[in-house]
Amino acid sequence: MTKKRLDRDAKWFFQHFPYYQMRMENEDFHGLVSMIDLTDGDYYFWEMPVAGKTPVCGKGMRWLQLIPDGTHRAITAKILPESRIVQGIQYPKTVSLWYVDVIDQWGYDFDQIAYFIDQYLDVVFDPEGDVVIDDRDELDAAYHAGELSDAQYQRAIAEGDAIVRELCTDIAKTEEWCVRILGQAMERIQKDEDVFRKNTK
Hints:
With about 200 residues, the chain is of the alpha+beta class. The chain contains three helices and 13 strands. It has helices at about 135-145, 150-170, 170-190, and strands spanning about 1-5, 20-25, 30-35, 45-50, 50-55, 60-70, 75-80, 85, 90, 95-110, 115-125, 130-135, 195-200. The strands form three sheets. Strands 1, 2, 3, 6, 7, 10, 11, 12 and 13 form a nine-stranded antiparallel beta sheet that branches. The radius of gyration is 16 Å and the shape is globular.
């Protein structure tokens, strides 16, 4: 299993971008919320079966990351720029893609940045209806190699099923939920209400 920090300083190398982190407790969400402002960088796209060319990062995008209480998941909503125009393409939705990691646990690192322990299985979906279960083969291999206990393995599978059931059945509802949380987070950032910041003025 791999440790991943929410400032995405490994693999994505986002450690120099403005990063915000907070605890949120309201009717929409209970858990950890973080946001990365992608203030620079070329656009990078994934090709999805139905949606086609889908932006996942680039200048003007935001990554909203949620770890809800009582779950074993880390949700990343890849938020498009306010114009929603990326390299000449007009995107009708606010979120281009969700990437949900099934996780074993999470915590705070030495410098207060939140991290999670990735448990291989991922659910990737988008507003056009794509739902992709990713890295099940890696989960199975880790289990057969003895890296995961029976309980961890079964919990990961159950969590993946729950993510599809709870977030992918009504994707428009999931998007509205994420947009509300983003708005609440932005309001707290602007008012500087109990927000951990990194690389911000």
